[in-house]
Design a protein that fits this description.
It is a single chain. The protein has helices at 34-44, 77-91, 134-144, 174-179, 184-194, 229-241; strands at residues 7-13, 21-27, 48-52, 62-67, 72-73, 95-102, 105-114, 117-126, 128-130, 158-161, 166-170, 199-203, 211-217, 222-225, 247-254, 262-271, 274-287. It is 23% helix and 39% strand. It is built from six helices and 17 strands. The chain is globular and about 50 Å long. It has 293 residues and is of the alpha+beta class. It folds into two domains: 7-121 and 282-287, Diaminopimelate Epimerase, Chain A, domain 1; 128-280, Diaminopimelate Epimerase, Chain A, domain 1 (Roll), CATH 3.10.310. Helix 3 packs antiparallel against helix 5.
Length: 293
């Protein structure tokens, strides 16, 4: 089937408006099959697609579903940024505070018009953290092809799950990050064996300098992601967990190796139930029914 009203959004652009992750946003069609929905991103030339429900849930939230060419995702951070940017653009308002329902979870969203685009924040919720088992860690690290000098001297891999688990793998510096050349077949096998969405390889932020990261998720059809907002929230939770602080806020640059520089903001807070996070990014609506912003 055809999808006549697809809007392409550059989600999580840098502060100067450059780059971002191209994301297709369109209205869902009840008559469509999931195969039809998986075809949206490929037809639009993007890695991900967000499909907006035409109506609200009984609790007043808006359902949004996310697809790559190979799978439906239980959540998508930069897809949420793109979806809420389009929703704000359609209203003509300056700010939209709402609730989104994705993957069985309902959460708060905020979208605000800014001079450089639309700033979107959303509540990621609780992030569960654990140390990987030795065989789990070894399989993923081996698939990444890291050298003996690449691992971070004081940080270590963690499994983080805001829903779907992924492995966070720290490296020494940005040079080590740029050198990562994963064996995608081996990484796909390892992620499927251990039930992981993918692998977020990162350099932690230091002082006022943003962190940097690359996300590899070939098991869901995304060899390398331009921007992975949910993993940035996971990283904020991990960094908070290593300290005695009550809150932490980070900025992480991504997408440089793909020629699409991006930036994601995230904050983490300790609470009675555990560590919760908020994730944000700036979006530029490029074309389609949402118009330009």
């Amino acid at each position: 089937m055809s999808w006549p009203d697809v809007t392409v959004v550059d989600a999580c652009v840098r502060r100067d408006g450059r780059g971002g992750s191209p994301t297709a946003v369109t209205d869902d069609d009840p008559a469509a099959t999931d195969a039809d929905r998986r075809a949206v991103a490929a037809a639009a030339g993007t890695s991900h697609a967000a499909l907006l429900s035409p109506g609200r849930m009984p609790d007043g939230s808006w359902p949004v579903r996310f697809f790559t060419a190979t799978a439906e995702l239980s959540g998508c951070g930069h897809g949420t940024v793109a979806a809420q940017a389009v929703r704000l653009t359609r209203t003509g308002l300056g700010e939209l505070n709402d609730r989104q329902h994705t993957g069985g979870r309902t959460f708060d969203t905020t979208a605000i018009r800014r001079p450089a685009g639309i700033e979107v924040w959303f509540d990621q919720g609780l992030v569960a953290l654990r140390d990987p088992a030795e065989d789990e860690r070894a399989a993923v690290v081996a698939a990444l092809g890291l050298t003996d000098d690449d691992p971070h001297p004081t940080d270590a891999p963690r499994i983080a799950a805001p829903g779907a688990p992924r492995m966070l793998v720290p490296v020494r510096d940005r040079s080590a990050l740029l050198r990562v050349r994963p064996h995608l077949g081996r990484l796909t096998t390892a992620c499927r064996r251990y039930g992981l969405l993918g692998c977020f390889v990162y350099v932690p932020p230091v002082g006022d300098r943003p962190g940097a990261a690359r996300m590899f998720a070939p098991a869901i059809g995304v060899d390398e992601d331009v921007a992975n907002a949910n993993s940035t929230g996971c990283l904020a939770a991990h960094l908070l967990d290593r300290t005695g602080a009550q809150t932490v806020a980070i900025e992480v640059e991504q997408g440089d190796t793909l020629g699409r520089p991006s930036g994601v903001l995230a904050s983490a807070r300790r609470g009675p139930a555990g560590i919760t996070t908020r994730v944000g990014g700036l979006a530029v609506v490029r074309d389609g029914r949402g118009g330009d912003s």
